[in-house]
C-alpha cells in the first residue's frame, strides 16, 4: 500500500473509531429508499452492530432486502473539510450463536461511552429490540480530488 493509500486507510479507521452514529441506507422490496441514523459499535472495520426494533422501517427493509449502504461522517466539520467512510454491506438481524458475541461488542461500546450495558435478554423476544449486523464488502473514502477510492482498512 502506498503512502497516500495508507493515509486514507488511517483516516477511515479514525472515522469509524471516532464515530457514534452511522447513516444506514436500505430499500424495501420495490426499491423505495430509506435512510436511518443508528448508533453503532464495530468489531474490526467491516462488522458493524446496532440495536433496533424489528418494526422499524429499516429493519423491515433488511428482512426482505439485505443490501445496505452506510456512511460514517462528522456533520460538524466546516464546509469543504468533510470526510466520510462509505460502506457497501449486507445486513440482517443477528441470530444464533452470533448474538452473544455481537451484544458483547455493542454493550462494551455503550458502557465505554457512559451508557448502560446490554444483555442477551435486551435483544431477544419478548424484548422490544433486536441486534443487527452489517458486514461490509467494500469500503470507500473520497480523496483530495473528490474521487471515490476503495481502501483496505483491516488491521
Any key phrases for this structure?
alpha+beta, 155 residues, 25% helix
Rg over CA atoms, rounded to whole Å, is: 16 Å
Encode the helix/strand succession as letters: HEEEEHEEHEE
Q: Write down the CATH class.
A: Mainly Beta
Instruction: Please tell me the total number of domains.
Output: 1
Strand content: 35-45%
Count of individual helical segments:
3
Quantity of strands, as a count = 8
Structural class by secondary-structure content = alpha+beta
- The fold-level CATH name is Pnp Oxidase, Chain A
The CATH homologous superfamily is called Electron Transport, Fmn-binding Protein, Chain A
Mean pLDDT figure: 92
Low-confidence stretches: none
Describe this structure in words.
There is one protein chain. With 155 residues, the chain is of the alpha+beta class. The chain is 25% helix and 36% strand. It has a single domain, classed as Pnp Oxidase, Chain A, CATH 2.30.110.10. The chain has 3 helices and 8 strands, in the order αββββαββαββ. The chain is globular. It starts with a helix and ends in a 5-residue tail after the last strand.
List the helices and strands and how they pair.
Elements: H1 3-18, E1 21-27, E2 33-39, E3 41-43, E4 47-52, H2 57-64, E5 67-73, E6 84-93, H3 98-112, E7 130-142, E8 148-150
Antiparallel strand pairs: 1-2, 1-5, 3-4, 4-7, 5-6, 6-7, 7-8
Short account of what is shown:
This protein has 155 residues and is an alpha+beta fold.
